[in-house]
């Protein structure tokens, strides 16, 4: 079965996933992979549930592409926010850039602004769909196209797991998709504004995320594989 799944194209896998799982949603941070995934998914299922996590620290360019996508496909995007009291406590007690102090402080911020809202978004679902790719990071090299997400107790579908960067951009250009304009300024992976910068030519694509941390730590907690 695994080999069967692995051989499926992104479109075939999404068709299978929509058939297999009635309570399924697509998670999007509106990066390059996400706009590709939304295009493929909406063409198969115009009613696909799409959600995003608004951490409160996103770039303006990210909101702009969210809006363009919303208008292009005439879709609703379910938005989840961090708990206001938790953010108030975090900023009051530790300041506005606590995540720069050490990895524990960074994970605390990611936990409040991303991981907890994700748990809300996943409530009642059997499966979620992501735009993760194996090539993106050392932390993602063993990614499967379909895997059990133990941390959240549901299935996780990664239709673009075997796509490379060229393939993603080729799809965007051919289909004339809206994309985050920060990519035109040498950004290669886009998250919260204070934790994302442009990369230099010789740097890898995740180098601009939490650049003060070691590569093996560069996950916000949304995609930690706790199966091992
Ligand atoms: S990416 Fe940075 S600002 Fe965003 S939630 Fe994580 S630590 Fe906080």
How would you portray this structure in words?
It is globular, with a radius of gyration of 17 Å. It contains 7 helices and 6 strands, in the order ααβαβαβααβββα. Strand 1 (24-27), helix 3 (32-44) and strand 2 form a beta-alpha-beta unit. The protein has a 6-stranded mixed β-sheet with strand order 3-2-1-4-6-5. Helix 2 (10-20) crosses helix 3 (32-44). 36% of the residues are buried. Helix content is 37%, strand content 11%. By secondary structure, it is of the alpha/beta class. It has a single domain (2-185), classed as Rossmann fold (3-Layer(aba) Sandwich). The model has no long low-confidence stretch (mean pLDDT 93). It binds iron/sulfur cluster. Iron/sulfur cluster (SF4) is lined by residues 55, 57, 99, 106, 109-110, 113-114, 191-192, 194-195, 220.
């Amino acid at each position: 079965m695994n080999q069967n799944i692995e051989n499926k194209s992104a479109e075939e896998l999404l068709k299978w996933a929509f058939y297999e799982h009635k309570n399924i949603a697509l998670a999007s941070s509106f990066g390059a992979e996400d706009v590709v995934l939304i295009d493929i998914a909406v063409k198969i299922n115009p009613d696909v549930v799409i959600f995003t996590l608004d951490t409160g620290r996103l770039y303006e360019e990210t909101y702009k592409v969210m809006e363009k996508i919303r208008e292009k496909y005439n879709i609703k995007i379910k938005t989840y926010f961090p708990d206001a009291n938790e953010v108030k406590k975090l900023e009051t007690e530790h300041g506005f850039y606590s995540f720069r102090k050490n990895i524990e402080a960074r994970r605390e911020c990611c936990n409040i602004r991303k991981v907890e809202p994700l748990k809300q978004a996943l409530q009642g679902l059997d499966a979620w769909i992501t735009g993760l790719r194996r090539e993106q990071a050392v932390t993602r090299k063993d990614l499967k196209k379909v895997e059990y997400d133990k941390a959240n107790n549901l299935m996780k579908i990664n239709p673009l797991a075997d796509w490379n960067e060229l393939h993603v951009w080729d799809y965007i250009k051919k289909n004339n998709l809206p994309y985050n304009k920060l990519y035109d300024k040498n950004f290669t992976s886009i998250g919260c504004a204070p934790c994302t910068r442009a990369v230099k030519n010789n740097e890898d694509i995740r180098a601009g995320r939490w650049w003060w941390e070691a590569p093996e730590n560069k996950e916000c907690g949304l995609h930690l594989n706790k199966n091992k």
